[in-house]
Amino acid sequence: MNSIKLATAALAAATALFALPVYAAGNLNVICSADQQVCDLMKGLFEKQTDISVNMVRLSAGETYAKIRAEARNPKTDLWWAGTGDPHLQAASEGLTLEYKSPLFDQLQDWAKKQAESAGFRTVGVYAGALGWGYNTEILQKKALKEPKCWADLLDPSYKGEIQIANPNSSGTSYNTLATLVQIMGEDKAFDYLSKLNANISQYTKSGSAPVKAAARGESTIGVVFMHDAVAQTVEGFPIKAIAPCEGTGYEIGSMSIVKGAKNLDNAKKWYDWALSADAQSHMKDAKSFQLPSNKSAEVPKEAPKFEDIKLIDYDFKKYGDPDVRKALLSRWDKEIGAKAN
After folding, report:
1. Which sign does the torsion angle of CA 185, 205, 89, 117 carry?
2. Residues 7, 8, 12: CA angle, nearest 5 degrees
3. Do 254 and 111 contact (CB within 8 A), yes or no?
4. pLDDT below 70 — which residues of the chain?
5. 334 with 191: CB under 8 angstroms?
6. Residues contacting 105, CB < 8 A, separation 6+
7. pLDDT value of residue 239
8. Residue 210: CB atoms within 10 Å
9. What is the pLDDT of residue 342?
10. Cα angle at 311 between 182 and 243, to 5 degrees?
11. How far apart are CA 163 and CA 200, in angstroms?
12. 3-state DSSP call for residue 279?
C-alpha cells in the first residue's frame, strides 16, 4: 500500500513539473542591435556566468523598434540590448519598455544616467560613440582623391559613387546622422545637403556599420558610420582611416531596454544588471568593439576615439528621440532623398 502511495506521489510531482509555464526560469529572449560579433560575445559570456539560455536575434535599431512596436500586445522579446539611443527613447516615450533602475546605476557615467533619467528609467546608456566616417586610404590614393575632413567635403563631385551610408528607416546610425545634420545646419539646409550628397552615394545599406565594411573590402571608398566602427576595421588590418568632421558631429548613446510585458522579466533584469557591470563592458573590446563604456570602472579600449579630441555638438537626445519628430524627419527623407536614391 505504501509503495502505491509513493508511486502516486511521484506521479503527481512529475505532473506538476510538466505543468510549469512555457517560459521557464532558464530562458531569455534578446534582440541585439550591435555587430554580430559583439552580440555573440555577450550571449556567450552571459550564458557561461548564469544558467540562463539566451535566444538572441540580431536586428538593427530601427528594425527592432518597429518589431517591438508591432508586437506590443503580445511581446516576443524580453530585452533589447545595444543600438543607438534615439529609437530606445522613442520606445520609452510610447510605453513599449519597462521602468527599471538597476542597482548598478550609481556606477555609470553621467551621460548614461541622463539617458535613463530622461526616459523615466525605461532605458539606460551602455556605451557611447561619435559619428564620422572611415575611408579606404589605398583607394583614395589610387584614385587621386583628396582626404574628406568635413561634411562639406563629401559633396565634392569627385566622390560620385564613392560613398555609402545606411538608410535611416532601418539604421539607428543613419537616423543619428540625419538628426545630427539637422542640428548643425537647420532642417531645410540639412535636407538640401542630403539631396546633393545623394549624387555621390553608391548604396543606402540596411545596417549602420555596413558602409565602412564595404570600404574595407574595397567595394566603396567612404563609409559614413560611427567612428568606432571604422576603428574596428583598422584594427582588423584594413586600410581604413577614421575621421571626425571638422564642422562638428553628433554622437550616440548605445542603450538597453526591457520590453514591457517581458515573459522572462527576472532574467531580463539579470542581463540588464550584468550588462552594466564593469566586467561585462570590459570584455566588449574582445569582439573589436571600441565604444566608450558606460560603467566608470570598465576598461576603456585604447583604440576608442577620444571624445575630448572631437568637436561634438550638444546632441538633443530627448527631441530627436521623440516619435513624432522621428516620423516627420523620416517621412521627409523618404520623399526628398529616398524617392530619388540611386
Report:
1. negative
2. 115
3. no
4. 1-25, 342
5. no
6. 113, 116, 124, 276
7. 98
8. 23
9. 58
10. 90
11. 6
12. helix
Within 10 angstroms of residue 106's Cβ, the number of other Cβ atoms is 8
Q: Do residues 156 and 146 make contact, with C-beta atoms less than 8 angstroms apart? A: yes
297-308 burial, b at 16+ Cβ within 10 Å, e below that, comes to ebeebeebbeee
Where do we find the cell 505543468?
19
pLDDT digits (tens, 9 = 90+) for 126-151: 999 999 999 999 999 999 999 999 99
Q: DSSP code of 118?
A: H
Q: Which three three-digit cell numbers place residue 155?
A: 559633396
C-alpha cell, 103: 542597482
Cell of residue 133, nine digits: 566616417
Reported as half-sphere exposure (CB side, CA atoms, 13 A), residue 54 has a value of: 25
CA distance 279 to 6: 48
Residue reference for cell 530606445: 88
- What would the grid cell of residue 144 be? 587621386
Q: Dump pLDDT digits (tens) for 247-285.
A: 999 999 999 999 999 999 999 999 999 999 999 999 999
Distance CA 115, CA 337 (A): 30
What 3-state DSSP class applies to 252?
A: strand
Side-chain half-sphere exposure of 156, counting CA atoms within 13 A: 13
Residues constituting the chain = 342
What is the model's pTM? 0.83
Task: State how far the Cα of 342 lies from the Cα of 336, in Å rounded to an integer.
Answer: 13
In whole angstroms, give the CA distance from residue 197 to residue 169.
17
| Residue 144: partners with Cβ closer than 8 Å, 6 or more residues away | none
CA distance 57 to 221: 30
Residues in a beta bridge with 57: 31
Q: Which three cell numbers stand for residue 123?
A: 532605458
